[in-house]
Design brief:
The chain is built from 44 helices and 10 strands. It has 875 residues and is mainly alpha-helical. The chain has a 5-stranded parallel beta sheet with strand order 2-3-4-1-5, with helices on both faces. Strands 8-10-9 form a 3-stranded antiparallel beta sheet. Strands 6-7 form a two-stranded antiparallel sheet.
Length: 875
Amino acid sequence: MVRPVASRWPFVGRTGELARAGAILASGTGVLLLGEPGIGKTALARRLSEGAAGEGATVIHVVGRAVSSGTPFEAFAGVLTGDRSPAPAGRDDGQVTAADVAARVAAAGPRTRRLLVVVDDVDLLDDGSARVLLHLATAGAAVVATARSAPLPGIIETLWRDGYCERIELTGLSDDDAGELLEAMLGAPADLAASAAFVERAQGNPLLLRELAQAALQRSALVRRDSVWVLAGPPPLSGGVRDLVATRLAGTGEADRAALETVAAGEPLAADVATAMVGEAQLIALEESRLVAVRPGLAGPEVSTAHPLYGEVLRADLPVLRLRRLRLALANALETAEQPSPHDLVRAASWRLDSGQGDDPQRLLAAARAARGISLETAERLARHAHQTHRSLPATMLLAEILTHTGRGTEAAALLAELPPDSLTPADREALTYCAAVGQSLHSGDTSGGTELVAALATGDPAASRYLHALHASMLTFDARLQDGLTIGLPIMTDQQLPAETRTIAAVAVVGAEYWLGHTMDAVTYADAVAAVASTPAARQAVPYAAASIELIAICALIEQGELDQAERRSQRMREDGIAARDPFGAPRGEYCLGRVALARGRADTAIRRFRRCLAAVSPFDQFIIRHLNSMLARAAATAGDLDTATAALQAGQDQPRMKPYEPEWDLAEAAVLAAGLRMDEAADRAAWAAGVAADSQEWNIVLAGYHDAARYGAAQQVLASIREAAGHVDGTLASCYVDHVAALAGRDPAALDEVARRFESLGMLLFAAEAAAEAALGHAAAGDLRAARASGQRSTGHRAGCEGAVSPWLIGAPAAVPLTPRERQVAALAVGGCTDPAIADRLHISIRTVQTHLAHIYVKLGINRRTDLASRLS
């Protein structure tokens, strides 16, 4: 069943324009909103009118019409029809004037209220209605009008020229706002690929966004899987989109059309290639007509159609043979350029393959190698064709490597097993080891087995390359042998004489080890130092996942330092760069990091959306991280009090491959789910267990987080000594916040808890700030200082307001300093949640009689008589 997109979409973004327009109206001046069709002028005008009506203004809506009925003052006819005021006397000849109509319109509302006239398509008003509008404006009415950016009729221009309105030019929504609007239309998150596909095509235009989404839904190109919208095929073009593009291109001459088709066939094209293909004069004419755009590219200016949909429609309408001829000519031009870019070589080889001319093995292999850093799907296609048509050793080795990077280690192993052993060079054997180790470690979850495979060759062969030793270091780190990985990897990473790909794979080991060991400052420093190396074409082709993985670890290190703003900026940049480059590793890792930042801030709903998108976008290579992603989703859902989603996430990750460094965080997710279900003793035990497991591997960041969680769940006194010891291994201010929080909880020190709450607030960690302030309120109340209790409680409530509904059910009533014991608080929270006495008894492993006794005590303490009064008293 096709889910229709709502015909009236929600208002998203435009915060700057809304604030500016509101300020202009407040000053007594009107607003003229200009922009292309569908850009959101009407939605902004509607929002402004709703705000004015809410403040008591009389609002009149009128609409300009492209085809006039000939009725005098037709735009205001509806207003005048309902007007019962005496008809104006008019002129001596009996004709009604614009001033007369304006007077009747102004009299339609209460004289004591401000009049706001909202006009949609003001440029289409008939002349009489335009004069009425001008009279209303001169008489003091405020005007909010929308119009296209084309030259305005003279009377409407007067509104702006004489100061009755200020102009605001609306441009497209930002990519983030457009993505948010798409998800609001669909009613659920869209994965990164789907969101990027629609946002890029729409270019910030809400009307185009809606048309594209509706067409994809109708043709089942956009489907819902596990609460996330994903693409099931290329997004189709709707009839409405085709009509809009056809209208824009109407009147284009034959020569301009042919040149535009050439650009569309190969966009983006280097400016010199585009000039050679269509001629400089023709290209300038197209740019002046705003049919093509020249934008900066990696190797200089690039030419493309002015809007992505122009190119898409033109390519769809081109006859197959003409498109084939154009692309073969473009392929020749790209290949013979003075310095063809890797991207151009890949496109040229792909076009030749599409045209049946992909028979040059060297060209295919060169393009396939280059494509590894651009698109693994394209790289596989080129390498597979070379393997199938030529059966050369280099083609087979390259295909096996690409298959490994796309998560198909079994297929790669079968392919390599067919190679005759005596044909392999030492480099080939190392490549075989790489494929086997990665397949065994990452895709099967046997990190120890994969590490031993590499170790056997790296330590047993004196001639083993530095690259193999770097791989060994990386495998050691992800087998949770952190110090060994650091010891082997650091000299390799810092050796500037080694190839970029060797230093990059060593950096994965070093940055990961430093992070988990608690040396977060060193992790960030090393990641920044090696970033340029990891981003070189050689490194991206050999290890396409490495640059994004290094940046991910650096961002996690910043989060552990409490540097959430910096972590968020870097996460956003990685996500945006990944989407722009269609990087299957960068975009999902950026989304993951944004989820981690949101969770640290207490924004559970945002974190849930981020982790769901990340799960939907995870590449085949990254199957090893699915269990960890599900644990993060479970933790976010538990923080939001959504136990169904949290439990489902844990079930989904239960049988997925396991990576040793991530396993303690799985235990912490289980602890969070137990705590959300108010099984506090079990939650505290599980969190402390996770901390102990992490300590065995020296993962001190996770040790710290585990003991902090255990304290939050009620075991502060038991873990205080352990968390103090762990904090000595960890950099950053957050470590001391954790320790001081646990110490304040253990000592039941309300003043210290207030101070910890302020420190968490300064870091942007509002959920922890809210919890510390709530505990402080309880402590102040117990000490008889009700004024301080109220102040702490108010701060807690304020912090929690910024947490998107995040819950800490074991602290129910705490901000109001309700004097309940921890067990009574658990019983009260479950009762408020609708649990029956038997259900509460089962959840807390106590008898029904004990539950009833606790409830009786709660009623007495709260001064209530009925279960139904609990929620209001505890809020």
